[in-house]
Give the backbone structure.
Amino acid sequence: MKRKAMSRVVLCSMLAVSAYIFISHFFLIFLYLSPANPVKAAMNPVIHQYTQDLWAQNWSLFAPEPLHNNTALLVKCKDDASKESQWYNINAGMLDSLHNEPLGPFVRLSRMHLTAIRYYQGFSDPTSELFRQKICGSDPDNTVCKRDDASSKTTKQMGTKMLKRLGSVACTQLTKSNKLQDVKFRVLFASVKPYSERMNQQWKPEISGFETEWLKFEQVAPLPFKLTSEEPAT
């Protein structure tokens, strides 16, 4: 009888611990996914440590090498006196807002810079771009390789407009100036560490990118979050 009673106590204890872990886990996930509220604000350090540090998802969770590179979009502002600002990271604020509130408009807003960069380069579909690269590997003189076809030109015009408006919003937030004239972008690509190099402490990413010409500043409606960290990019 004593052995049965002990077994019941152990079983009840295990069930209680399991229930506590189960409820705590889903409570923290619920707060993480919920809109901004006082409870979430008070528990944000715990929520961040649990979701971002303990259960952070990265490339190794699903496949060895699903990503090819990480992208950063930097902006520079110029006023009517030709005074230029430093470079500022324009996608940091979008990603921070997404991490703080993963449900809602930030899911799409956080991808604006990636879409604008693709369009500015003359393509809208990454899969079609891979096909284009295969064509250019065997026929570099093809029209699509020079981006002289009508589709590429139209797409780049759209990308230029998207970047111009993003830069205008960012420079307005950053400088608080009403004398802005132009915005300029620097796009950086950093290669993702491959699975085969996961143990190599000496591995360093390959950095590549390009800069745009100066684009005319436009008066546009503000976005509901900061596009920059208000710190110069390094």
Q: What stands out?
A: Helices lie at 2-33, 38-42, 44-54, 92-100, 106-109, 112-121, 126-138, 150-175.
